[in-house]
Amino acid sequence: MSKLTGKVALVTGASKGIGAAIARSLAAEGASVVVNYASSKAGADAIVAGIAAAGGKAVAVKGDVSKAADAQAIVEAAVKHFGKLDVLVNNSGVYEFAPLEAITEEHFHKQFNVNVLGLLLVTQAAARHLGEGASIINVGSLVSRLLPPASAVYTATKSAVNGITGVLAQELGPRKIRVNAVNPGIVETEGTHTAGFIGSDFEAGAVTQTPLGRIGQPNDIASIVTFLASDDSYWLSGEQLYASGGMR
Questions:
Q1: Which region, left, alpha or beta, applies to residue 89 given φ > 0 means left and ψ of -120 to 50 means alpha?
Q2: Ordered structural domains, the chain, with CATH
Q3: Tens-digit pLDDT profile for residues 62-77
Q4: CB–CB of 245/214 below 8 Å?
Q5: Which of 4, 76, 78, 176 could form a disulfide with 30 if both were Cys (CB 3.0 to 4.6 A apart)?
Q6: Distance between start and end Cα atoms, the chain
Q7: Which residues are designated catalytic?
Q8: Rounded Cα–Cα distance for residues 115 and 93 (Å)
Q9: Whole-model pTM above 0.85?
Q10: If residue 199 lies in a helix (H) or strand (E), which one and from where to where?
Q11: Which residues sit opposite 179 in a β-bridge?
C-alpha cells in the first residue's frame, strides 16, 4: 500500500514549479490532491490531468490565499470534493528583491500578504477540519539562513514562516497535528528561469557553494514534503528542514 493511500492533501500554489511537483508526488503515493492556483488555470488543469492519467485523483481549485474568503473557500472545496482533509502544504509564495532604498509599501505588502498572511489564513481554515495524525508542511526558503543582500522583505517573510511553524507545532500538537517547514535552496523552476537565475553567474556561484554540486530540482523538494506528509515522519514536528544540497 502507498504511504498516503486514503489521505486528502491540499497544496497551495500548485500549478507549476515546486508546488506542482509536490502535488504529483503526493498523488503518486495515493493521496487525493487539491491543486490550488491563483491565476494559472491551464497550469493547474494540466497537473490534474497528469495525475489522473497516472491513476491518481486530483481537482483544481482557484483562490487567492491572501484573502480570507478565498482561503476558506479553497479548504471548503477540498472537503466538499474528497470528504475530509489530512495534509496541508502551504507552498504559495512570491518574491521580489530590492535594496533598502527601493523598498516600498507595495513591495512589502505584496510579499507578506501571500507568504505570511496567506499561510495563516489557509492554515486557520484547514485546522477546523484536520484531525489526529494530520500534517501541515510550510515551504520556506534557504534565504532565512543565507540572508542575501537586497532580500530584506522576502527573507523576513520566510523567517516568519519558520517562526510560525514552531508556534503552530506548539498550538496544534495537543490535537496530534504535526507542523514542519521545508526550506529549499535555489531550485530550477519556471520562476527562477523567468527571474534570470538559471544559466547566470548566480546559478554558477550557487553550485560552487553546494557540496552536492548542483542546484535543486522540484522533485528534490517534493520527496521531502511527501515524507513529512506521511506517517513515516510521525515523530517530527516543529522542525525546520533545509533542502539545499548542503548549501549553507
A1: beta
A2: 8-189+218-242 (3.40.50.720)
A3: 999 999 999 999 999 9
A4: yes
A5: 4
A6: 37
A7: 154
A8: 5
A9: yes
A10: none
A11: 136
